[in-house]
């Protein structure tokens, strides 16, 4: 029997994968997640008993595994997913953080929330319906958010007699569409979430399919957490100035390294001021170290006594981002109140929050066909569009294509603190940013 200590040691040596599920209404997302949790032995006995009890009350003989994720009462009553449900589970090979996102059009913003930190997206398609408008929307959102791996799960294969031509046609159509958006990797898997085919165990009904099951792919897909090769960025969160007898002259800048690595003796620039210095010391967990890397939380000490405060960004002197007050970005509007031209907002980027005004909304994206609706004047809930924002103070932003961490920001209502929109600086799709012929090069997206 595995002891707790052995289990903890085993988990510490496994990698972590963050992934999100998406798909149209009734494509079976929650059932897939429930099957994944159930068949991987990640469901507690009392949880399963509660699901069995709820299923019997609804007149179902077999337990409805979708109830493992549809936790809200409204979700269970309607049989749909409304909120983003996060689940944590592990296998001997990998740990997982799963975001089960809604399928309704009016909850597109919820998918943006769930997929914003995902390294893989599972897009479900009903084998009977094929690729529909909502499927294309979810593929477009995954491309916008630069999710590096996309899995097409063609579900309900049992309802089409496990026919290979049905799967092949859907896979071909979706792959062509996603590739045109610049998605670097697409894997198609035929499944039946209800029956368990190709979810955790290989299907006995589809001997024509020789690829991995969903869980096998999740366990083996390459996930790079090596951020040391990225552009080094350190947003200052707090200035430590104890002024005690033991540390009379100590001045350190604390925060979490967003990307890259910093070394003692390295020349750095503090933005937005542009002042330069060198790193005199790095303190991590109460000890001095020579090097630190993302996502460590550290305190950096500089050789020169310069003005550094919360919200400033420390970067290598020879690799500092450009400073600007004019931010051009793609945003997903997440609030019920609209975002209009001329509106005053707060822009939060890493640890820095500044006043800003929406100067222009050049276009709104129509996710059905990826066409641009020019000059809409405003964005409403679930809209995705281009905006131009003028900030009161300069910001050091990377493009979102270079870094999801320092290329993203939030627009906030200054009146009540409501989040209005989630923004991604720079171009929208990979193909638009680098040219159609460069889509294959995006496998090196820097996260």
Strand proportion:
25-35%
| Class from helix and strand fractions | alpha+beta
- Globally, the shape reads globular
Number of strands: 25
Write down the Rg. 24 Å
Q: For the terminal residues, how far apart are their CA atoms?
A: 39 Å
Mean pLDDT: 83
Could you explain the architecture of this structure?
By secondary structure, this protein is α+β, with helices and mostly antiparallel strands. It is built from nine helices and 25 strands. The protein has helices at 4-12, 29-39, 45-57, 73-78, 108-115, 133-144, 164-180, 214-220, 430-434, and strands spanning 15-23, 85-90, 94-100, 120-126, 149-155, 186-190, 234-235, 238-240, 252-256, 261-263, 267-271, 275-284, 287-289, 291-293, 297-302, 313-316, 323-333, 339-340, 344-349, 352-366, 371-374, 378-379, 384-396, 408-412, 419-425. The strands form five sheets. Strands 7, 8, 9, 11, 12, 13, 15 and 16 form an eight-stranded antiparallel beta sheet that branches. It has a six-stranded mixed beta sheet with strand order 2-3-1-4-5-6, with helices on both faces. Helix 7 (164-180) links the parallel strand 5 and strand 6 (186-190). The longest helix has 17 residues, at 164-180. It is globular and about 75 Å long. Residues 1-13, 72-82 and 432-447 have low confidence and may be disordered.
Top keywords for this entry?
single chain; 447 residues; alpha+beta; 8-stranded antiparallel sheet; 6-stranded mixed sheet; 9 helices; disordered N terminus; disordered C terminus
Short description, anyone?
With 447 residues, the chain is of the alpha+beta class.
